[in-house]
Each structure stands twice: as C-alpha cells, then as structure tokens.
Amino acid sequence: MDIGIDFGISNIDVAIKIKGEIRFYTFISSDESISDKFHNVINKLDIAVSEIKNIAVTGGKSSDLPDVFRSASITKVNEVMAIGQGAKDIYSIQDNAFVVVSAGTGTACINYQANNFHHLGGISVGGGSLQGLAKLLINTSDAHEINKKAIKGNRSNVDFLIGDVVNNIGGLDGDITASNFVKARDDKNYNTNDIAAALTNMTGEVIGTVAYLNALLVGVSKVYFVGRIPLLKSVRDAIDQRLELAGVSSEYNPNMEYANAIGALAYLQGKI
After folding, report:
1. Is the domain of 215 the same as that of 261?
2. How high is the pLDDT of residue 252?
3. Strand ranges, E, within 104-251
4. d(CA 25, CA 180)
5. Are residues 137 and 52 in the same domain?
6. What H or E segment, with its residue span, contains residue 162?
7. CB 29 within 8 A of CB 260
8. How many CB atoms lie within 10 A of CB 63?
9. In sequence order, which ranges of 70-125 are alpha helices (DSSP H)?
10. Residue 14 to residue 5: CA distance in whole angstroms
C-alpha cells in the first residue's frame, strides 16, 4: 500500500492507493510539530500500519521527517513537482507546456515545459486571506458559510464598478471592479452578504490576475487549477471573469484539492 501526504498550512490531504483505487482523506492542520502531525494522520487512517509499504510526503516541513516509518520508507517530494504532477494526473494533461495555479491558503503558479516543472512565482493572497478577512469583517471564517453569503450578496453595494463612472473603458464591461471596497468608506447601504460577495470577488480577482499574467508570460492560453479555494463558486466566478479579460480559459476538477497528495503518490509510481 502506497500513501501520498500533503502537509498544507490549513489542511493535511492524503491519497492512498489500495488495489488500484485511490482513496482521499482530509484532516485539519494544527500547530503541532511535523512529527506529531505525521503520526496523528497515520493513526487516523482506517488502515493497518503493517500494510503500508511506501509513504511520499510534500508540503510544510515534511522534509524534516525521518526516511523510515516502521517498515515503510518515507520519500520527500518537492512541492513544485507534487503540484505539477498532481495536476497532470487529475486532468490527464498531454500538453508539452501548461500552467497550474495552486490556490490554497496562499497561491502558487507552476509551469511545465521541456519535461520539467518550474515555479513561476506566487502571492500571499488565497483562501487563508479570505477566511481571515471574513472573520474580521463578518465574524465567520467558515469557507462554505462565506460562499453562501457571497452568493446572496451584491458586491456593487461595496465595490466601485467601472459602470459607476462610465459605460465602458478600453473595452471593459461596466461590471468590472474599478476599486474594491471603496463604497464602504462612506456608504452604509450594505450588509454582511454584500461584504462576503466583495471579499470572495476580490480574492478571485487577485488569483485570476496572477493566473493569466503567468499564462501569458509562458505563452499558454489555459490554466489548470488545484487547491480548495476554487471550489467556492463565488471565488471561481471572479477568477474566470479575470481570465476572460485576457482571453485565457480555465479548467477545474472535483478532486483538485487533493492534487498535491496525488502528485506525491505519483512520485512513488515513477511518474516524476
């Protein structure tokens, strides 16, 4: 039995290959040492430890783990390769060059070219930013609750849109944001749903902008997304709106939050 584990800032994701089938598990991360996190995850899995042959780990401080756990070997996988290969597997990508955006607690951009994965860069804005700001502004950090409120909200009560000033500018539609949150400076005509809508939109705009800039940088017209934050419809819609401005398309997968764990598992199968 082979196991891939991704130690993220907010979550720990696990992919286990059992008799040709991959099972997924998610656990909330903690402030424990990497050793304690590792042992707690293994103990929570509904498998017999004696059946584990190989473990591949990535993310966080997983490189500090020993090389052996009981009779199983522990292989440390570079996170850039785990992200890239995980995306390649879940999307069955055959392209010679592509860009993957890992949108989790933060955001990272990975490029595959000439049979190698390269880290293009990243930004600190991601799901963690959304949850932290939401806790400050609407008193919830639950991502699904934020998304539900955002879908009900009207961000134009908080954001300043291009249409508030002109009908269009440079070909941009009137519903494109001119300035995030600026109406909250003076107006009181908004509620927590509107704030949630503005927050998820701003998060998606930032991720979408860095995604299309990196896509254009390496000359591709499509971005593959992994991580949890694009699972939120309100964020995903904002990402796609930004990508459309640059003529860049997107693709999402129901299992994209497990891409890093899948990529680590792929290392054990000799794919990387």
Report:
1. no
2. 97
3. 107-113, 116-123, 160-161, 177-179, 222-226, 249-251
4. 36
5. no
6. none
7. no
8. 13
9. 79-91
10. 5
At 185 the three-state DSSP class reads helix
| Residue numbers of the domain that contains 15 | 2-81+257-268
* pLDDT (0 to 100) of residue 121: 93
Q: How many domains does the chain have?
A: 2
One domain for residues 235 and 263: no
How far, in Å, CA of 38 to CA of 228, rounded?
21
Q: Identify residue 77 by its one-letter amino acid code.
A: V
Examine the domain organization and report whether 129 and 227 are in the same domain. yes
| SS3 label, residue 26 | strand
SS3 269: coil
Query: Is residue 210 assigned to a domain?
Result: yes
CATH code of 55's domain:
3.30.420.40
Residue 111 lies in a domain: no
Residue pair 232/210 in contact by the 8 Å Cβ criterion: no
Q: How many CA atoms lie within 13 A of 182 on its CB side?
A: 8
Are residues 73 and 139 located together in one domain of the fold? Answer: no
**Which residues, other chains included, contact 123 with Cβ-Cβ below 8 Å and sequence gap of 6+?**
106, 107, 206, 207, 210
Same domain, 131 and 246: yes
Pseudo-torsion of CA 179, 184, 188, 191, nearest 10°? 90
**Average pLDDT, 10 consecutive residues per value, the chain (272 residues):** 93 90 91 93 88 93 92 94 95 91 96 92 95 97 97 96 81 87 89 98 98 96 96 97 95 96 91 64
**231 plus 172 within the same structural domain:** yes
222: left (phi over 0), alpha (psi -120 to 50) or beta: beta
Residues 264 and 203 in one domain: no
Q: Is residue 14 in some structural domain?
A: yes
